[in-house]
Structures are given as structure tokens and as C-alpha cells.
Amino acid sequence: MYKLRKENCEEGQIIFKHGDVLDRVYILAEGSIEVFLSIQDEDLVLDNIKVPGSTLGQYSFLAETPITYNARATSETNLLVLPFDKLM
Questions:
Q1: Under a CB-based contact definition with an 8 Å cutoff, are residues 12 and 71 in contact?
Q2: Which domain holds residue 74?
Q3: Residue 86 confidence (pLDDT) above 90
Q4: Taking the CA of residue 67 as centre, how many other CA atoms within 13 Å lie in the half-sphere pointing to its CB?
Q5: Average model confidence (pLDDT) for the chain?
């Protein structure tokens, strides 16, 4: 059985950016994450994720495409990280 890796993020830390090719799924353990697009030097917030157990990055894995949005911690945030190769 694979043990999930913990990742701590400071408030304002970028978790990933539009165009990144992810090799992992992120699971929110504690804190909050803002999902947004950057358009002409302005951020358009799409969602605020605060529910523990919420996941990020899984659609990039399923579609086998680069990520289509940005994500940043909006508070001290703890994530659990599951590499894609452990999903197969």
C-alpha cells in the first residue's frame, strides 16, 4: 500500500500553473485553495476550495493534458500528494 506524501503550502504559494503537466493528484487535508485564471495581469477566481478531501489535478491525469488553470494556497494549507503512477 502506498503512503501519501504530505506537502505544506504557505499562504499565497502557487501549487501549480496553467500549462503545467502534472504527475500527481493533490488532496486537500487542511486549509484553502483558490483556483483561478490569469487574464491580462488580472486573476479571475473560478473556485475556492475549503472542504478537506477535495482533489485537484485528477482531470489532467484522466484527459492526459496539461492543467488548464492555476491554484494557490489562500491560507496555511496541508496537502496529501498521490503520484499518478500509483493510480495505475
A1: no
A2: 5-86
A3: no
A4: 20
A5: 91
CB crowding 7-21: b at 16 or more within 10 Å, else e: bebeeeeebbeeebe
- The whole-angstrom separation of Cα 60 and Cα 23 is 9
Q: 87 or 37: which carries more pLDDT confidence?
A: 37
Q: How far is CA 43 from the centre of its chain?
A: 16
Question: How many C-alpha atoms does 80 have within 13 Å on its Cβ side?
Answer: 12
Query: Does 87 have pLDDT greater than 70?
Result: no
Alpha-carbon distance of 38 to 21, in angstroms, equals: 17
The CATH number of whichever domain residue 71 belongs to comes to 2.60.120.10
Cα separation, 35 vs 55, in Å, equals 12
2 vs 75: which has the higher pLDDT: 75
Three cell numbers at 79?
496537502
Q: In the chain, how many domains are there? A: 1
